[in-house]
Amino acid sequence: MRHYELMVILDPSQDERNVASSLENFLKVIRNDGGSIEKVDVWGRRRLAYEINKQTEGVYVVVDVNSESASMQELDRQLNLNEMVLRTKVLRHVAQPRKEARLARANAKSGGKTAPSEATASA
C-alpha cells in the first residue's frame, strides 16, 4: 500500500456541508479494495486561479489515502466522470531521498549538532 494525497475541486453550487458525505460514495472504492482513508479535509469555497467550465470558484477537498495503485486509478476515473467535479489531482507520497535520510540520522545521533560538512557550508 502506498500513501496518496487526493485534491478534488468541486462545483461551487454544491453545499459545503454535504461535500464530505457526497465524497464518501467515491471513497468506498478505496475501502472495498482494502485501503484506508486517513483524513478528509474540506477547505471550503475558494477562488480559482483560472476559469474551469465557466466557474471562477470551487470547493476544495484534500483526502489522505493509503491504497493500491489500481484503486486510486479507479477512484480518479470515477471522479472525472462526475459532473460536479471540476478537477482532480492525485499525488503519491515520495519517501525521503537516501542522502537526506543519512544526514538526518547522523544529525540525530550527534544530538542535534550539525555535521562538519554542513558547518563549513554554512560559514
From TrEMBL:
GO biological process, one term: translation
PANTHER family cross-referenced by the UniProt entry: MITOCHONDRIAL 28S RIBOSOMAL PROTEIN S6, SMALL RIBOSOMAL SUBUNIT PROTEIN BS6M
Region (Disordered): 97-123
Protein name (record): Small ribosomal subunit protein bS6
Single GO term (MF): small ribosomal subunit rRNA binding
Record-stated family: Belongs to the bacterial ribosomal protein bS6 family.
UniProt keywords, alphabetically: Ribonucleoprotein, Ribosomal protein, RNA-binding, rRNA-binding
Classification via InterPro entries: Ribosomal_bS6, Ribosomal_bS6_CS, Ribosomal_bS6_sf, Ribosomal_S6_plastid/chlpt, Transl_elong_EF1B/ribsomal_bS6
Lineage: Bacteria, Bacillati, Actinomycetota, Actinomycetes, Pseudonocardiales
Function: Binds together with bS18 to 16S ribosomal RNA.
The keyword Disulfide bond is assigned to this record: no
Any one GO CC term of the record: cytoplasm
Signal sequence range: none
Presence of the UniProt keyword Signal in the record: no
Database matches in Gene3D superfamilies: 3.30.70.60
One protein family per Pfam: Ribosomal_S6
